[in-house]
């Protein structure tokens, strides 16, 4: 098939648009969407210090690659990367190595923070303790996700970042929305957005505002873009991956295959009702400093310290 815009050989067919795109038109389209999202939500301003959460996967590598090129001529803009070493044997070392190579290629400073140094134990050690107490644990990703978010925020603040850029894509967002509804966690749903601004909801400046430039881009398109730009590294799946999120993913992918564009509809519908959720539920104005680590939490202990203590 030929590109719908320039008649060159197409590399992708966007069912939700009904268009074929060649390599050049597709890459320009992805970059234009990222630029439009940044402008639409006011994610970046002059003088920002942007910390990019870089795991070494396709999403984080793509967002670092695009925003580095997008803002390379902006004066006063500082972009650097933060990687988290959870301590997952046979999985994390290879992705960290790739992250370091990508940062060297792009001329970006790279900072690595580890669970072992910050929390006193690796994720492997933590899960060894947890599984002795709960052999049938169904959500091991909870321990990793909570601790990783805690450390990313802590690291970004230490390094003086004004924004924390994450590689959350369209699939990540709609999965999170669905899971929050399934779990009845409306307070968490009310805090979801493309840009989390500082204020009452962020614990008096304890949270570094997060931005999501890839929020309206499907995961498959990000993977293709990364492959075409030579920043894609096929990697093994995390040994702890699993749980209800994967079932939500499969359900949404099935619906998207039958009804192209339904993920966009789901996301934009949520954005429209979010103000009513915020009004009815609130967004967490009671955020306080954790009595143990000083990070933001909703009670005496933040979620990370609560899980690690257990």
What would you note in describing this structure?
Helices cover 49% and strands 12% of the residues. It has one domain (27-309): HUPs (Rossmann fold, 3-Layer(aba) Sandwich), CATH 3.40.50.620. A hairpin with a 4-residue loop joins strand 1 (10-14) and strand 2. With 310 residues, it is an alpha/beta fold. The termini are far apart. The chain has a 5-stranded parallel beta sheet, with helices on both faces. It has a two-stranded antiparallel ribbon with strand order 1-2. The protein has a two-stranded antiparallel sheet with strand order 8-9. Helix 1 crosses helix 9 (219-228), helix 2 crosses helix 9 and helix 6 (141-158) crosses helix 12.
Radius of gyration: 20 Å
Shape: globular
**What is the β-strand count?**
9
CATH architecture: 3-Layer(aba) Sandwich
Strand line-up in the sheet with most strands: 5-4-3-6-7
Biggest β-sheet, characterized? 5 strands, parallel
What is the domain tally? Answer: 1
Considering the chains and any ligands shown, give keywords for the structure.
single chain; 310 residues; alpha/beta; Rossmann fold; two-stranded antiparallel ribbon
Could you give the topology of this structure?
Blueprint: E1 10-14, E2 19-22, H1 23-41, E3 49-53, H2 58-70, E4 78-85, H3 92-106, E5 109-114, H4 115-119, H5 123-133, H6 141-158, E6 163-165, H7 170-182, H8 186-190, E7 210-211, H9 219-228, H10 244-258, H11 262-281, E8 288-289, E9 296-297, H12 303-309
